[in-house]
Write a structure and sequence with these properties.
Length: 285
């Protein structure tokens, strides 16, 4: 009952850190101790349990990142469906003279609006412009090159750029890239990435899609994993994550093999504990 109720609330509001901490502790307690009231040793940290099964974890979810992913869905709907009643109502209150991606927090904002706006940043990480005419897309600041990190141009923008919009890089008469112009402006890596972007034979309006999904459609699951990757990148230099141990040194293929083996869940759980180097009844497995 707790998960559906908390997910409903998390779709509309940013829940407090105390809630996320308590939820994580309770789930971990049930996992290690069962439904009994006794408290047993937690052999692995909650962070490691939240890793995917292919990385040695059990796929538990961070409550706070799940909250952000759910709020990002609300932001996606507001961005993709500006003609809906609730989007029109919110626009009239907070961003009458701009679109949602440029909206500011405004005066006396509601908790719901604060929550959605804060996790609009999570949405921006995965948005990608599909190039049509190219007149809406800023070359240097928008996400539009699918094969580059964060979908952005990695070359430093010049102080006085000679081109500003993607449409200036397109030969509209022949519907192809202006290769010589692109090569004169960008590095080889960026040039190759731009030229890999296909231009439609029949030009259409530029449109936003969910860049980390092949079908371009937003999903909570992909957003959650995106936020996990961002967190892991930010914490990459942490000493707690670089300390060598048996759990971290187990190859990915071994974890995948454990979960694919044709055995009962109890046997799989035993093999997982062995791979993680956990002890059983005081003895090392």
């Amino acid at each position: 009952m707790v998960a559906p109720i908390s997910n409903f609330a998390a779709m509309h509001f940013k829940l407090p850190s105390s809630f996320h901490n308590r939820a994580s502790k309770e789930v971990a307690k049930v996992f290690w101790s069962g439904m009994t009231n006794s408290s047993k040793i937690h052999w692995l940290s909650w962070r490691k349990l939240c890793n995917s099964k292919s990385h040695g974890g059990l796929g538990f979810r961070y409550s706070n990142l799940q909250n952000r992913a759910l709020l990002a869905k609300a932001a996606w709907r507001m961005c993709m469906d500006p003609d809906s009643d609730w989007a029109k109502f919110t626009k009239a209150l907070y961003y009458l003279h701009c679109d949602f991606l440029q909206a500011r927090i405004g005066n006396s904002p509601s908790w719901a609006w604060r929550s959605i706006l804060e996790d609009r940043e999570a949405l921006k990480l995965g948005l990608l412009w599909k190039i049509g005419l190219g007149n809406k897309v800023d070359i240097w600041h928008d996400n539009w090159v699918s094969s580059l990190p964060s979908f952005k141009i990695t070359d430093q923008a010049p102080l006085y750029p000679t081109v500003q919009k993607v449409e200036e890089l397109i030969d509209h008469a022949n519907q192809r890239w202006k290769k010589s112009l692109i090569r004169s402006i960008f590095s080889t890596q960026v040039t190759n990435a731009i030229l890999c972007n296909q231009i439609l034979l029949l030009p259409t309006e530029d449109r936003l899609v969910w860049g980390i999904a092949k079908n371009g459609i937003f999903s909570i699951k992909s957003t959650y994993h995106l936020l996990c990757n961002v967190r892991d990148t930010e914490d990459k230099t942490s000493t707690s994550l670089t300390t060598p141990n048996k759990w971290a040194s187990t190859p990915k293929d071994v974890w995948n093999l454990i979960w694919k083996v044709g055995a009962t869940p109890k046997i799989k759980a035993f093999l997982w504990r062995a791979g993680a180097g956990l002890s059983h009844r005081g003895r090392s497995i």
